[in-house]
Specification:
By secondary structure, this protein is mostly helical. The protein has 15 helices and no strands. 64% of the residues lie in helices and 0% in strands. It is elongated, with a radius of gyration of 21 Å.
């Protein structure tokens, strides 16, 4: 792998914007030197997999970039375990790697276990939008769309139930919950061609159609247009949104 490519596109993630002081300069130079050493190493496939269970984030990220296959369910499990509960750079790189692997028929079978699907669902609402975007695409390659659908519906219901106790302001808590709803709706949209929307989703969209956040109403309109194809009951959501003044919401409305 090209050292310059790795350093410019990945090492920069590890350098905080706060590192203006000399004490941090020395630390960053040490990390840069270590990154260069890692780039010079010739990793075998098993070496790459072994490093995915280590605590060396710098080396682990390089190994994630280099990983081109999984040869067993155990290897897939180790990879997916880095998608949550790790540092931001590791979660993001892991999501890119899983997406590239699950797209390929030869590896897709290793990413179908329910405990893996549970991790995918959790990653949909990762605080890093890049992880969320990748997760939304990753789940389009999952065979059990119904399991995903039920899990995502459950997540939205939990979030909405907790919204009742929050003042509808631009508070951090409100924004975080809107973020969760936004990405979970986007996830449902991504698998809409595999699912027939049910009463649970209909009730969710009735509520989100009245959100103070236009991005939630926009996703509501988009979801409605997808699920209405197989369930005409969703027309009532379009009626709720018919007079919405936001241009991003209106673009999904039927004539």
């Amino acid at each position: 792998m090209q050292i310059s490519s790795f350093l410019t596109s990945n090492y920069a993630i590890f350098i905080s914007m706060e590192n203006y002081y000399e004490i941090n300069y020395e630390k960053n130079m040490e990390m840069l030197e270590q990154a260069a050493k890692y780039c010079a190493e010739d990793f075998e496939h098993q070496d790459l997999v072994s490093e995915l269970s280590s605590d060396d984030d710098l080396k682990k990220q390089l190994c994630l970039i280099e990983l081109s296959k999984v040869t067993s369910q155990k290897e897939a499990d180790i990879l997916v375990n880095n998608l949550t509960g790790k540092s931001g750079p590791i979660r993001e790189t892991t999501s890119f790697r899983i997406l590239e692997l699950i797209k390929k028929e030869e590896f897709r079978q290793f990413f179908q276990k329910k405990d893996i699907l549970d991790i995918f669902v959790k990653s949909i609402t990762d605080i890093n939008p890049s992880v969320s975007r990748n997760a939304v695409e990753i789940i389009t390659y999952v065979d059990d769309a119904k399991y995903l659908y039920d899990s995502i519906i459950r997540e939205i219901q939990i979030t909405l139930s907790r919204m009742d106790d929050i003042k509808q302001t631009r508070s951090y808590t409100t924004n975080k919950k809107n973020f969760n709803i936004y990405w979970n709706l986007e996830a449902l949209i991504s698998i809409a061609d595999k699912i027939v929307g049910d009463e649970d989703l209909l009730e969710i969209l009735k509520e989100t159609a009245h959100s103070n956040d236009y991005t939630i109403r926009e996703k509501t309109a988009k979801a409605t247009m997808e699920f209405i194809k197989n369930n005409k009951e969703f027309i009532c959501i379009m009626e709720i949104l018919a007079n919405d003044e936001n241009v991003y919401v209106r673009k999904y409305l039927v004539d």
